[in-house]
Amino acid sequence: MLSAEAGLARCARALWRHRSCGRSFRCVQTQAQFEYPASQEPEGPEAHAIPAGLATPRQLVRYLDDFVIGQENAKKVLSVAVYNHYNRVRANLAATTQDELEWEEDTLTMEEGVAPVRLMPHPQRIHAHYPLQARQSFPLFEKSNVLVIGPTGSGKTLLAKTLARVLDVPFSVSDATSFTQAGYVGDDVDMCVQRLLQAANWDPYRASTGIIYIDEVDKVARKSGGSGMDSTRDVGGEGVQQALLRMMEGSVVTVPAKGGAAEAPPMNGPGRSRSGPRGPNAPATKSDTYSIDTSNVLFILSGAFVGLDNIVKRRVAKGSIGFTAPLASSNLEDQSNNASPPFFTPNKSSAGPHYLDLVEPSDLVRYGFIPEFISRLPSLTTLSPLTPQDLRRVLTEVKGSLISQYTALFGYSGVEIRFSSGALDEICRKAAERGGGARGLRGIMENILLEPMYEVPGSNIRHVLITERVVQGLDRPLYWAKGEGTAFWAAWAAEEERHL
Ligand SMILES: Nc1ncnc2c1ncn2[C@@H]1O[C@H](COP(=O)(O)OP(=O)(O)OP(=O)(O)O)[C@@H](O)[C@H]1O
Predict the structure, then answer these.
(1) How many angstroms does the Cα of residue 293 sit away from the middle of ligand 1?
(2) Which of 11, 59, 357, 463 has the fewest CB atoms found within 10 Å of its own CB?
(3) Which domains does the chain have, with CATH numbers?
(4) Would you say the CB of residue 156 lies under 6 angstroms from ligand 1?
(5) Which uninterrupted H or E stretch holds 172?
(6) How far apart are CA 292 and CA 287, in angstroms?
(7) CA 437–ligand 1 middle distance (angstroms)
(8) pLDDT tens digits, residue range 378-387?
(9) Which atom of ligand 1 is nearest to the CA of 303?
């Protein structure tokens, strides 16, 4: 249960987010009424927090900087995409609901200690007032889902997760390799919506404005794509793309309620059917099914796209500029007339320019994606592999870095652990050598610290020093007992001097 103070802080944050609405809010627990004139700036703890709902792209990038090293272009592209997406969502919902509907955000509930912030009106109310056909005729803003291309462990998931956290929207991660076309063994693509609903604590309103992150999307490239990337999958790849594109565009997905059919073993075979009502006006009760409209869900798709750089390289070598592939989407055809397609934003990473920076939709078509699919992903960004210098910053500088985590872990046992600069460099060198980006750092740390984590608890050890030779496996970690602090500091200083 949140304390009253924390509850009020949360209310204040919600009010600040929605200050431009000029609405009043009532806390159902305390019955307190809050008013926020549009011009009023918050005071107290909220003044220092990021005004998430309306944070500008620049503020979002600054926030990301605390957690993600490098990847400047990806930070910009994602921040702009997220900012535009949520502005678009607000505008669309305002267009569909103004005056006729009561806004859910008028009431902040504080059930079970949580104060869920209702960003949007209940989708069912929108559906009740405006049938799907009517809503489709509104001049609504088009959606911009994002495609993120980058090597493993470079921060793709971290970027999306961090943005979802600052925006306080539900976030789900799914792996495209587990998806199959409906009716075949494997996960239906609807599964990602179910995960989102789960992440939203089974709150369909929040889920319908969340972020769905789908990793390894390059694995659903069709086999006949022309570059032979994935020979194990054929029509299933295209079937999954078709299903995903419908969902990205905005469709109503019926999700069984908690403990419902979706959690039972999947039925296989083309005759697969679901129980429960379908369609936008289907009732959404906790005991039955939920209908989630994905029109306001932001999709971020990512993958390493191994081999794509060769496709780009070949195209560039042939001097082909623009769109040479037979693109079905008029959206893409429009872009082909531009000298510099809006699809492409050059990457100014520390690793320098590389061929993936020049990716165009036609390259993705050659890679095995249907044009209709990539036209639903108008924002694209590439991430660079992390250099050993980047890894060093990941290890030591970001908020909640591994070094700070392990230091705190030993601190709980009253033990001080230090890593010499040489040790840190050696850890990063090893991680870079292994590949896998920053993902490899934790494994190396666990390996090095296994012995001290075993020896220290229950012993009289109070200081631990990890040197370069320890990381290289040439020495054992160095230990000092209580009262030997001076010797520990002297040894550490000597190590640092040796490394200079
Ligand atoms: N640029 C970065 N800055 C800080 N930490 C990073 C960065 N890149 C990766 N990490 C760390 O490495 C781990 C893996 O990162 P992440 O899951 O974002 O990789 P990914 O690019 O999504 O890889 P994959 O495609 O394999 O899923 C996380 O613990 C994350 O904290």
Answers:
(1) 30
(2) 59
(3) 4-48 (no CATH), 53-95+143-264+286-382 (3.40.50.300), 388-499 (1.10.8.60)
(4) yes
(5) strand 171-175
(6) 15
(7) 7
(8) 889 999 889 8
(9) 25
**Greater confidence, 170 or 356?**
170
**8 Å CB contact between 33 and 19:** no
* 242 in contact with ligand 1, CB cutoff 6 A: no
- Closest approach atom of ligand 1 to CA 159: 18
Tell me if 398 CB under 6 Å of ligand 1.
yes
Exposure string (b/e) for 35-63, b if CB count within 10 Å is 16 or more? Answer: ebeeeeebeeebeeebbbbbbebebbbeb
**How many angstroms does the Cα of residue 37 sit away from the middle of ligand 1?**
41
Alpha-carbon span 263 to 280, nearest angstrom: 22
Tell me the one-letter amino acid at 364: L
Find the DSSP H helices in 98-219. 123-129, 132-136, 156-167, 191-199, 204-207
Per-residue pLDDT reduced to its tens digit, 59-68: 889 889 989 9
Overall pTM > 0.80: no
Within a 10 A sphere around the Cβ of 328, how many other Cβ atoms? Answer: 13
The predicted pLDDT at position 76 comes to: 93
Mean pLDDT of the chain: 72
Q: Is 53's C-beta closer than 6 angstroms to any atom of ligand 1?
A: no
DSSP state of 380: E
Residue nearest to atom 7 of ligand 1 (CA): 155
Pairing state between β 298-303 and 146-149:
parallel
The answer to whether the CB of 320 is under 6 A from ligand 1 is no
Residue carrying structure tokens 């806004």? 103
Verify whether ligand 1 is closer than 6 Å to residue 382 (CB atom).
no
Residues 6+ apart with CB under 8 A from 263: 256
* Tokens of residue 273, six digits: 């059917």
